[in-house]
Design a protein that fits this description.
Helices cover 51% and strands 12% of the residues. It has helices at 22-29, 79-82, 99-116, 118-121, 131-139, 142-173, 175-183, 188-224, 229-232, 240-266, 270-275, 285-320, 346-361, 410-414, 440-445, 517-527, 539-546, 550-582, 584-592, 597-623, 626-633, 644-668, 672-677; strands spanning 17-20, 39-42, 45-52, 66-67, 331-337, 366-372, 382-387, 400-406, 418-421, 435-439, 456-459, 468-475, 490-494, 502-509, 534-538. It starts with 16 loop residues before the first strand and ends with a helix.
C-alpha cells in the first residue's frame, strides 16, 4: 500500500518520510488504510507515512518495523565516519550477473578504498555473499551446522549399515532362489539390478516417511528457535530443494545399503547352492565377516558421537556455571536512547542522567542504580588506545580494549569488585582531569603487569585527537561474553566526562527485580514522558537470551547420539541373533557332545564382546582429535574432559553386552534333540 522512497528523498530536508512494516501497521495503527499521508512521530520529529510493506516482505533474519531514508552529509565523509562500520549494504544483481562477478568488482573497489584511505581501510576486506549465506555467517552458525550435518551423516551411515546387514541376511536366506534364477539364465547383472531395486524401494519408502515426519520435526525445531527475533523471523519450511535433497539421499542410501549385499549374492555358486538342502546352513565366512565389520563400524561411530556430544555438553555446562566477574542476580536492566531534538549535546545528556539515577536510587528496595553504555558480559565494542611514553605500533597492530562509559554507582550496582585504587565519583566531571579505570587483564596484557597508577592512555573515540586520561583504579575482570570463557582488557570512562546518547540502566534490588519494571517506567515518565524504554528485563533473562541456540544445538546432537547408540545396539542384537539362528544345528551338536549351557552362553557372548571391543578401540582412536577439532571450529571453546574417554567406552561396552546377552541366553536354552532334528 502506498509507495517506497522516491528519488531525492535521501536529501536533507526531504528525508522525513517513513515506510511501515505490515506488522506494525496492524499492531500500532489498527490496519488503518488511511494512514498513508498522515504524520507520525519518530524521535520527537514528524515523519509522513508514504507506504506500508506487504506481509510477505521478509528479509530472513532482519526484522525492522519502520524504514526511513539514509541521509548522507558532510560529517559522513570525515576520517572518523570512515571507521564507523555499522551499516549493511544490500544489492540486487542485474540479470545475467553472477555472484562471482559482483564479488570481483567489490574487491576491486575495496582495494581502491584501501589505497585512498590506508589509515581507516588497511586490513579491511570486502566480502560479497548471498543473503542466506550472509545470515549463516552473521549468526555464527556455520560451524554448528557443519557439526550437526556430520552427526546426521554418522547416524545415516549407522542406519545404512543396519539395513545392509538385514539385506545380507535376507540374501543368504534366498541363496537357493537366486541359484535357481541363475540356472534359468539370469545373469549376474540382472540379479544385482533386482536386489538394488528392492533396496531402492526400501530407501524411497524410508525417505518418504522421513519427509512426512519432517513436518512435525520442523514444528519442533521452530519451537526451540525463539531465543531472539532475528532467528524467529527466519522461515522454516519444506520446499522443492529439500524434497530433491531427500530424494537424492534416499538414492545414495539405496546404493550404500543394497550394492554390497547384491554383489555378494550375485557371486553365489549355483551348483553348491542347488545341492544344499539345509535351511539352517551357515551363511558363509565372507557374509559373516562383512556384517561383523559393519556392526563394528556402527559401534565406533556411536562412540565418536557420544564422546563429541559429551565434550560439547560438558563445555556448555562449564560456561553456564562459570564466574562472570559480576553479580547478575537481583539486577533489573533496560535500554534508553536519547533523541537529538531534546538531548542534542553532552550537557543535556548529563543532566538527564543526573536527574534519573537519583530517582531510581530512592525507590524502596533499590540498593544501587547506574547507567552504562553496555551491560556486563554482553560483548561491548572495542576502542583503539595509545599508551603515553610508549611507541605506537602499526595501525593494524594497535592495542584495543573493550570500552564502557559508566556512572559512579555502576560497579556497585553490577557487583564488580575494585582491585586497586579508587572508583569514579560525582567529582569526575568535565571540570576535573580526565580519568579512566581499567581491569586486571588490561594491566596484565597491555601494561605487562607494571604499576598502572600514573599511567596515561588515549582513546580513539569520537574522531577527535585522543585526550590523555590517567588510570586511577583497577577493577576485577568480567567475562567478555556470558557464553565464552575469555577475558579481554577493559577500559571504563566516567559518564559525566564522556556522555553517550544510548545506554542501559542497571538497578540492584533486594527482591525480585522483575516486579520493579512498572515502577521503572513510571519513574522515567516523571523525567521524560515521551522517552521510550525498551528491553526491560532482569540480567538473568539477558544472559538466558544470550545462550541463543546452544541448548537446542546440544539437545539435537544428544538426540542423534542416543539414536546412534540404539541403532548400534540393534545392529549387535540382530547380528548375534541371526548368528544364533544359523548355528542352531551346530549348537545342538556341541551340547550333545557335552557342552554346557554356560559354555554356549560364553561362546555367544564372546562374539559380541569381540565386536564391541574392536568397535570401542576404533572409536576411541577416531574420538581422540575431537577436542582439537572443536577448538578449531568453535571460537573460544576449550574442550577437555578425559573422564569421557573412559565413561563412554564403558557405557557402550555394557550396552553391547546387554544386546548380546538376549540372543546368547536363548542359544544357551536350545534343546539339543530339537536342534539335531532340524535339516
Amino acid at each position: 500500500m502506498g509507495r517506497t522512497f522516491a528519488t531525492g528523498e535521501d536529501a536533507a530536508g526531504r528525508d522525513h518520510v517513513v515506510v511501515l512494516s505490515h506488522g506494525i501497521w496492524e499492531r500500532r495503527f489498527g490496519a488503518d488504510a488511511s494512514i498513508i499521508g498522515q504524520s507520525v512521530r519518530l524521535n520527537r520529529e514528524p515523519y509522513t507515512v508514504v507506504g506500508v510493506m506487504p506481509a510477505s516482505f521478509q528479509m530472513l533474519g532482519f526484522t525492522p518495523q519502520v524504514w526511513i531514508p539514509l541521509t548522507m552529509n558532510v560529517a559522513n565523509a570525515t576520517a572518523a565516519a570512515r571507521k564507523d562500520r555499522s551499516l549493511y549494504m544490500f544489492a540486487r544483481l542485474k540479470p545475467g550477473v553472477t555472484i562471482e562477478q559482483a564479488r570481483a568488482e567489490m574487491v576491486t573497489l575495496g582495494r581502491r578504498a584501501e589505497e585512498a584511505f590506508p589509515e581507516s581501510e588497511k586490513g579491511w576486506g570486502v566480502m560479497v555473499r548471498t543473503l542466506p549465506d550472509f545470515l549463516i555467517y552473521g549468526f555464527g552458525i556455520r560451524s554448528g551446522l557443519a557439526v550437526m550435518m556430520t552427526t546426521v551423516g554418522f547416524v545415516l551411515m549407522i542406519a545404512c549399515a543396519n539395513v545392509a546387514g538385514l539385506l545380507l541376511a535376507r540374501a543368504v536366506g534366498r541363496r537357493k532362489e537366486l541359484a535357481i534364477r541363475g540356472a534359468l539364465g539370469a545373469g549376474r547383472l540382472r540379479i544385482v539390478r533386482q536386489l538394488l531395486t528392492e533396496g531402492l524401494v526400501i530407501s524411497l519408502l524410508g525417505g518418504g516417511l522421513g519427509l512426512l515426519l519432517s513436518y512435525w520435526g520442523i514444528q519442533l525445531v521452530a519451537s526451540g528457535m525463539t531465543f531472539n527475533e532475528a532467528i524467529s523471523a527466519v522461515p522454516l519450511k519444506l520446499d522443492w530443494s529439500v524434497a530433491l535433497f531427500a530424494t537424492g539421499i534416499s538414492l545414495v542410501c539405496a546404493v550404500l545399503c543394497g550394492l554390497v549385499p547384491a554383489l555378494n549374492a550375485s557371486r553365489t555358486d549355483i551348483t553348491t547352492n542347488l545341492k544344499d538342502e539345509s535351511r539352517t546352513a551357515s551363511a558363509g565366512r565372507s557374509h559373516s565377516r562383512l556384517r561383523t565389520v559393519m556392526v563394528t563400524g556402527e559401534i565406533a561411530l556411536a562412540l565418536v558421537l557420544l564422546v563429541g556430544v559429551g565434550l560439547l555438553f560438558r563445555e556448555l555446562f562449564v560456561i553456564a556455571h562459570q564466574n562472570l566477574g559480576f553479580r547478575p542476580d537481583h539486577l533489573l536492566t533496560a535500554s534508553l536512547s536519547l533523541d537529538n531534538v531534546r538531548y542534542e549535546g553532552a550537557p543535556q545528556q548529563v543532566s538527564f542522567v543526573r536527574d534519573l539515577i537519583p530517582r531510581l536510587q530512592n525507590i524502596p528496595g533499590v540498593e544501587a542504580a547506574a547507567a552504562a553504555s553496555n551491560l556486563p558480559s554482553t560483548g561491548a565494542g572495542d576502542v583503539t588506545l595509545h599508551i603515553k611514553d610508549q611507541p605506537d605500533p602499526a595501525s593494524e597492530q594497535a592495542p584495543t580494549a573493550l570500552h564502557y562509559v559508566v556512572t559512579p554507582e555502576y560497579f556497585r550496582a553490577a557487583g564488580i569488585g575494585l582491585w586497586q585504587g579508587r572508583s569514579f565519583t560525582e567529582t569526575d566531571n568535565t571540570s576535573a582531569p580526565p580519568v579512566v579505570l581499567v581491569n586486571r587483564e588490561f594491566v596484565h596484557r597491555l601494561l605487562h603487569d607494571q604499576e598502572p597508577f600514573g599511567k596515561q592512555i588515549g582513546l580513539d573515540v569520537g574522531g577527535s585527537a585522543p585526550e590523555w586520561r590517567q588510570i586511577v583504579g583497577v577493577v576485577e575482570n568480567v567475562k567478555t561474553y556470558s557464553e565464552a570463557t575469555r577475558e579481554e582488557p577493559n577500559v571504563y570512562e566516567p559518564f559525566l566526562q564522556h556522555p553517550v546518547s544510548s545506554f542501559s540502566v542497571l538497578i540492584r534490588t533486594n527482591f525480585d527485580p522483575n516486579t520493579l519494571a512498572s515502577v521503572l517506567r513510571s519513574t522515567l515518565a516523571q523525567v521524560d514522558s515521551d522517552l521510550p524504554l525498551s528491553n526491560v528485563m532482569s540480567m538473568a533473562a539477558v544472559l538466558e537470551r544470550q545462550k541463543a541456540g546452544n541448548p537446542l544445538f546440544v539437545h539435537v546432537l544428544a538426540t542423534f547420539a542416543v539414536l546412534a547408540l540404539i541403532l548400534s545396539a540393534i545392529g549387535i542384537y540382530g547380528l548375534v541373533a541371526y548368528s544364533v539362528g544359523q548355528r542352531t544345528h551346530e549348537i545342538g551338536i556341541r551340547m550333545a557332545l557335552g557342552a554346557k549351557n554356560q559354555d554356549v552362553l560364553r561362546m555367544i557372548l564372546s562374539q559380541g564382546v569381540k565386536m564391541a571391543g574392536i568397535g570401542v578401540g576404533v572409536g576411541l582412536v577416531l574420538a581422540l582429535p575431537l577436542p582439537k577439532i572443536f577448538g578449531a571450529i568453535f571460537f573460544d571453546l576449550h574442550v577437555n574432559e578425559p573422564r569421557l574417554y573412559f565413561a563412554v567406552p564403558v557405557f557402550i561396552f555394557l550396552v553391547a553386552i546387554a544386546a548380546t546377552y538376549i540372543p546368547a541366553r536363548r542359544a544357551a536354552r536350545v534343546d539339543p534333540m530339537s536342534a539335531l532334528r532340524q535339516e
